[in-house]
Fold these 4 entries.
Entry 1:
Amino acid sequence: MIRVLLVDDQPLIRSGFRALLDLEDDIEVVAEAADGEEGLELAREHLPDIALIDIQMPVVDGIEATRRIAADPALARVRVVILTNYGMDEYVFDALRAGAAGFLVKDIVPDDLLHAVRVAARGDALLAPSITRKLIDRYISQPLDTGAGAGLEELTSREREAVALVARGLSNDQIADRMVISPLTAKTHINRAMAKLHARDRAQLVVLAYESGLVAPRNS
């Protein structure tokens, strides 16, 4: 059972998402919150697998709530998926750095929402190609962070290769095909790299890959 916490200051949004999610046999909405502060309290109380958090809320916004969840060892298993509207893409970078596992737009179609919740629950990142392109564009115009990616020297050559392919947006199956290994071996390389780099999930692995210069942005 995938346990979900809904955090949004709009009751209609929460009720709509809850109605959809509660129809699924493998998903359960365990709590709702109207702001980030309440969301943090409920996250600690219920320990959900997924926290769907609105990016703009009173008291504590979505980015700060994400940052606090990521920093709390007791909430290490909680995956944050940011809820946003179109035109809010300037927040993508900050939310990923704060520890978000991905983004969803509020007008997402039902099937895509259900798929996204299940993907996030598996520990995979929800980085659509459009989000990845914006992330890359950010790095084209800024210098490398020399303090990012501490621990890169501990990665094996195969782990480095796997991380670079994750940063290009490839799935485990695609990485396995590219590296001519099994999907399980690809996942093992990625998990070991995450542990060595202290990355919370694949989304943070992407950020580290670009910040450290392991992957160079493409201008085209």
Note: The first strand starts at residue 2 and ends at 7.
Entry 2:
Amino acid sequence: MIHIKQAIVVEGKYDKIKLSSIVDAVILVTNGFQIYKNPEQLDLIRYYARTTGVILMTDADRAGFQIRNYLKGAIQQGTVYQVYTPDVYGKEHRKEKPSAEGKLGVEGIRKELLLAALERAGVLAEEAAPKNPEEQITAYDLYTVGLNGQADSSDRRRALQKQLSLPARMSTTSLLEVLNTMYTKDAFFQMMEQLT
């Protein structure tokens, strides 16, 4: 079992049960959209953001992104790690039919994919020194490689997100945040050269 010092925020109790079998960490549950009406739970999430940092690990569907964006806006202080699970289609074992979008939630994702998602976000890595600002990938860098501001940019982003096992629903800003946890600027450009 892998110890994670940050608190992990998930949508439901089955997500928590799944993660509890993989990692040793504080796991907080939003109970889906109930987080909108639960100021005590939101205060607890904010507390962990200020003290240990929080990992937002919601599902890759529309509801998961809505909850993620709400929390991202509600947490004003502290550290927030964005962990994105890939778009995996199927049905959780406990459910009779798949979700509306047909995607598996955190509870249905294989252990290896969850650990890879945590690693991509820099959560499982040893404490690394902060990146030099010159090593940060910028919006302009996305533009120069055709991932933003061009006629086929959205198709190119989706192809990259699929290649990196990231959900298709990510915004350009979210993609930029994730890329900065995965690559230095030089490594990003090298990776993009290999893809073209």
Note: Residues 39-51 form the longest helix (13 residues).
Entry 3:
Amino acid sequence: MQHTTSAMHRDRDLLTRLDSAIGDGDHGANMARGFTAVQAGLARSGPVPSAPGEILLRAGNCLVSVVGGASGPLFGGAFRALGEALGSSPEVDARRFAAGLAAALAKIQQLGAAVPGDKTMIDAYAPAVGAFRAAAESGAAFATAAHAAAEAAEAGMRETVPLQARKGRAAYLGLRSIGHQDPGATSTAAIFRSLAEASGPLR
């Protein structure tokens, strides 16, 4: 959460520029405000839970209540689904986390009805989940899987540039949405990069 909060403040202006081109222009401010609230909420609630799932569940609840537009339900729903899948276990291995990421992806698709190629956060999230799962199933360490997911998310983010948006506000622009990087995919990639950074260096 600390890494993600720092990333959202670092990328706030970038996300604002990207969203100004094909959306409302508020994605940067919303994400920075949302994760700042997550950090504050965890600090106010007493000792931080030892279970990763409980932390993620609290983060998701906060994002749903604080972040405006579609981003709150989508990102918050993903964190909640991941937290629920991980449960109250104080330790989570790569395979279990991969299953949690798959549950989070399913929740995003249920809420947003988007698929890869629609120029949304799914274009970064889906390949990240696939890369994490593949690494985990091969027996890779958690950090290795997290770094693979981050690289896949960033590749998917870049691949949104030539796409025409088919979901969300950007879809109303039609062909004019082509040539712009999707802001939701960009913030998604930042979250996966934060996961990789928090999990430690590659070995």
Note: The chain has a mean pLDDT of 94.
Entry 4:
Amino acid sequence: MVTVTLLVAVVGSLANSGMALVGLLVLLPAAAAAQCTVRQTALVCAWTALLGSAAFLTGGSDVALADRVLLLVLTACLIAASLYARRRRINSERSMVRLHSAAVAIQRQILRPLPLRTDDVLVDGAYEPVQEDRLVGGDIYDVVESAW
């Protein structure tokens, strides 16, 4: 967050168009919503709102009021969308945890534990689904003592 802000400030100063580049900071909340925790995303959103408000208030006479209002509205909309996306991501992660727990319970019911030892063989095994994105599925295995 700080790095991107500094980068935008430096490039804006070099290009003599700091106000125009402040609009790039509205992408910070979206990036935070995709990768950060709830607190980190809220912090990035607050930071972006603060910078957007500061840009609105200190836009200067060379920047039209309509452009400053548009930047403020765009910032507010993207912050709201980022907070919504973060909530959806967290709910999705919780659903995946519940689904994984259910899959583990099903596996335990279907696949009984292998015996550790038969008369002549020490046994060990692991269950891995055929496809990575599937939690249940694949081959069933068992060990049985027999004459063959």
Note: The mean pLDDT is 76.
